[in-house]
Amino acid sequence: MITAQPAYKLRALEAGAKDFVGKPFELAEVLARVRNMLETRLLQKKLHNYNRCAESAKLARKKPTSPNRIFSQH
After folding, report:
1. How far apart are CA 9 and CA 17, in angstroms?
2. Helix, coil or strand: residue 47
3. 19: closest CA among 40, 39, 34, 5?
4. Which residue among 23, 38, 53, 55 is the one 20 to 30 A from 10 at the CA level?
């Protein structure tokens, strides 16, 4: 969020803003903050996908083996 009103900073953050840039702002700073937020989001998505795959693998390992399959191996 970008605003010239310092009183809005806390309200904005409480409403869900992830970061705050006061005016006047430098474009390089804003771009660095956006890049950092995007990187954080990408890492969150990767972690979510990793956890989902790990949970699927865990469930697959718990799957009971058919008795016919056990006996046909010997």
Report:
1. 9
2. helix
3. 34
4. 38
